[in-house]
Amino acid sequence: MKKILVGIDFTEADQTLLDVVKPLAKAQGASITLIHSTPPMAQWVGCYLAFVHEDILERKEEAKVFQEKLDAMQATLVEDGFTADTALIEAHPGPGIVKYATEHGYEQIAVGTHSKNMIERALLGSSADHVVRKSTAPVLVVPTMT
Q: Residue 7's pLDDT is what?
């Protein structure tokens, strides 16, 4: 069975992305994996020399919330007749999605792109841009305009 990895960021853009991916998955008989990437802990603690206990607890709570959201999205896909699963990873989104796709043998990646101008992309970077440049699997980029 073919597998499509779908980057989820918990914005309204997710529905736009899934509206494009679902017919594609159905036509290909592909399963869908919803992936969300949280920044590494080191990014959150900044200059701390050691992780603060409260930061770690907060991250665990965030992870629970993110997993619950992914599970709800997965349940909706399953109700709609799709084979679906989820992945919650700790990595920068672009590199994390590419690495996960490579390690788990995905035939296609789908990501949304927010309407950022060239200056915003240059200053802030773009997960979708990274995935397009670095992935060995075909990448579907869906403009989401949020």
A: 96
